[in-house]
Amino acid sequence: MKQKSLSALAALVLLLLALSGAQAQEKSAAQAQPTPDASAKAAGGAGKVSTPAVTAMAAANKVVITATTSPMDLARAAYLAQGGDKARNVKNMVLTGSVDLFAPNSLQSVPGKFAMVTADVRSRIEIQSPVISIRQISDGTKNWSSVPQVQFPDPNKFGLRVLMRYDQSGYVVSALPDNKKLRAFRITDPEGNVTDFSIDPETGRVMSFVIPYNGLVFGQENKSFKEVDGVLVPYNFTQRLEMRQGAAYADFKSKDVKLNIELGEDMFEIPEQQK
Question: What's the mean pLDDT in 258-272?
């Protein structure tokens, strides 16, 4: 792969993962394949798939969506479908799995492994593949990446993390035209960052979201879900980044999750030489 393609791929990985902001939790697989550093630092039990009683409770609390449902109620429906307060109150999560990376205008993917660790406003993300290895850390104040020439946005200002704050002061929920059969709405944070959500009118689940950022357009499509400890998790999802040289894609397949566990003290520590 040419150096230019590698640089684009590095930028893709950082922007995709930074912007996704997913509340990533999902059922533990018996034989997971985590990436080394981040997953090795985290220990504890894996999340459990919700029982029918939990699912029934969530169904009872969901918002009934009609053609006249307000944008605020659409956001509330998505919030409840995600797990409501259970999703909002998750202390931390460790998600690992596999990823296939597609550089712009390339039909050949680069396979790899990923690990995502989040705890409130802090996050650590790693990608490892035969041709590229990337670490990205946000300690809640500073952002750092192992690719210094690539700047990435604050991961707390976009995506599902914004959905968890839809009803908080300073966040504005507004209407968008329907996205085919999906209902759509926009959430704007206090600094003007926007995320456009499209949800299933039957379930309230977020099927996709789109984020304009720094002249680029990022999108995520959720292909399948699982419930873990009452929290809905995108299990298999595709992310894309629209750039001048074309669209780049990353296809993620989750394999293991750990929720609310004890994390290593240095999990979100930015390397000393980069502080």
Answer: 87
Q: For the residues 1-7, what does the mean pLDDT come to?
A: 45
**Mean pLDDT of the 73-97 span:** 92
pLDDT above 90: percentage of residues in the chain? 35
Residue 273 reports pLDDT greater than 70: no
- As for how many domains the chain has, the answer is 1
The answer to whether residue 122 sits within a structural domain is yes
Work out the angle at residue 170's Cα, subtended by the Cα atoms of residues 164 and 171, and round it to the nearest 5 degrees.
Answer: 40
CATH at residue 127: 2.50.20
